[in-house]
Specification:
Blueprint: H1 4-17, E1 21-25, H2 28-31, H3 44-47, H4 50-53, H5 56-61, H6 63-78, H7 84-96, E2 100-104, H8 110-113, E3 119-121, E4 124-131, E5 137-139, E6 159-163, H9 172-184, E7 187-191, H10 200-209, E8 213-218, E9 230-233, H11 236-244
Parallel strand pairs: 1-2, 1-7, 2-3, 7-8, 8-9
Antiparallel strand pairs: 4-5, 4-6
The protein binds 2'-O-acetyl adenosine-5-diphosphoribose.
């Protein structure tokens, strides 16, 4: 097996040679901030059954229960800070500007908190709320929520979290941009995702098919490892700065 330093150097060279770069992030990039991943030992899914909570049916059945779970997650996210992995991706955006994009499955908004501008949130954002009556959308940063379930300030209708639930389609406008990036990127970093939830699980395969180099960073092998040009196993918060700090402008 190749030395980690050598793998990181290969990743750095792929990035340097690429004009357009994508980073696909999952829960693993926020793990070092203290947000539990979905499927790890301490995973969010271990305490709660997602099929009970992250579906439109669950919300219809018991909006209060679903909102209590989101309120708990919002409190958790509000109490943590972005980590060195998020900061390294901000540095990459500073180096490459509009030629770099983050496609994230995370709803925690931590990429925005380090001021990355080019972020495609395919599963929505936990700080967004959407009215089930009038369709109005707002950002709501109240922690904890004063009223559960919260109501629309405009029409009094029931608000829902501005996230994508199981069984729902991904936002059309965001997906159109994602598809364009999957066509044009020359390198894709795949960071901290288990690669089992579609359609994000297929993004690396599509990018690879379009000749992009795939660089994976994860604690352990995933289905993406099979097609990755380089897989580096370790913490994103350590590996990303080690690679990105070496990149020449
Ligand atoms: P998962 O919890 O499925 O996977 C997290 C991945 O991060 C695992 O492969 C871990 O090995 C890896 N990981 C953990 N800590 C890490 C670290 N410090 N550095 C690098 N890697 C680390 O999370 P996602 O793949 O993001 O969807 O899950 C995808 C989607 O499933 C979520 O967006 C959510 C969930 O259902 C919806 O809510 C619609």
């Amino acid at each position: 097996m190749k030395e980690k330093k050598e793998l990181q150097n290969t990743a750095k060279e792929f990035i340097e040679k690429s004009e357009k770069i994508c980073a696909l992030t999952g829960a693993g990039i926020s793990a070092e901030s203290g947000i539990p991943t979905f499927r790890g030992k301490e995973g969010l899914w271990n305490k709660y059954d997602p099929t009970e909570l992250a579906t439109p049916q669950a919300f219809q059945r018991d909006p209060k229960l679903v909102w209590e779970w989101y309120n708990w997650r919002r409190e958790k996210i509000a109490s943590v800070y972005p980590n060195s992995g998020h900061l390294a991706l901000k540095k990459l955006e500073d180096l490459r500007g509009k030629d770099f994009v983050i496609i994230t499955q995370n709803v925690d908004g931590l990429h925005n908190r380090v001021c990355n501008k080019n972020v495609l949130e395919i599963h929505g954002n936990i700080w967004k709320v959407k009215c089930t009556e009038c369709g109005g959308e707002d950002f709501n940063y109240e922690v904890p929520l004063k009223e559960i379930p919260p109501r629309c300030p405009r029409c009094g209708g029931l608000l829902r979290p501005g996230v994508v639930w199981f069984g729902e389609s991904l936002p059309y406008d965001v997906m159109a941009e994602v598809e364009e990036w999957l066509r044009k990127c020359n390198a894709m970093l795949v960071i901290g995702t288990s690669g089992v939830v579609q359609p994000a699980a297929s993004f690396a395969f599509v990018a690879k098919h379009n000749d992009a180099k795939v660089i994976e960073i994860n604690l352990e092998p995933t289905p993406i490892s099979e097609i990755a040009d380089v897989s580096i196993f370790g913490k994103a918060g350590e590996i990303l700065p080690e690679i990105i700090d070496q990149i020449q402008d």
